[in-house]
Amino acid sequence: MSDQPVDPSKRTWLIASTCTGAVGGAFAAVPFVTSFTPSERAKAAGAPVEVDVSDLKPGEMRTVEWRGKPVWIVRRTEEQLKSLATDHDRLADPDSERKAYPTPDYARNPQRSIKPEYFIAVGICSHLGCSPASKFQPGAQPSLPEDWPGGFLCPCHGSTFDMAGRVFKNKPAPDNLEVPRHMYLSDARILIGRDEKGDA
Amino acid sequence: MAAAQKSPVTGVGPLNGVLTWVDQRFPLVSLWEDHLSKYYAPKNFNFWYFFGSLAMLVLVLQITTGIFLTMHYKPDATLAFASVEYIMRDVPWGSLIRTMHSTGASAFFIVVYLHMFRGLLYGSYRQPRELVWIFGCLIFLCLMAEAFFGYLLPWGQMSYWGAQVIVNLFAAIPVIGPDLALWIRGDYVVGDATLNRFFSFHVIAVPLVLLGLVAAHILALHEVGSNNPDGVEIKAKKDASGRPLDGIPFHPYYTIHDLYGVAVFLFIFSAIIFFAPEMGGYFLEYNNFIPADPLKTPAHIAPVWYFTPYYSMLRATTDDMTVVLALLAVLVGLWTLLRSRLRLPFKLGAFGAAVVVAWLLGGFKRLLLVAGMEAQAKLPMFAGFDAKFWGVVIMGGAVIVLFFLPWLDRSPVKSIRYRPGWHFWLYMVFVIFFGVMGYLGIQPPSPVGERLSQVGTLFYFGFFFLMPWWSQLGTFKPVPDRVTFQPH
Question: Shortest CB distance from B296 goes to which of A46, A131, A174?
Answer without folding.
Answer: A131
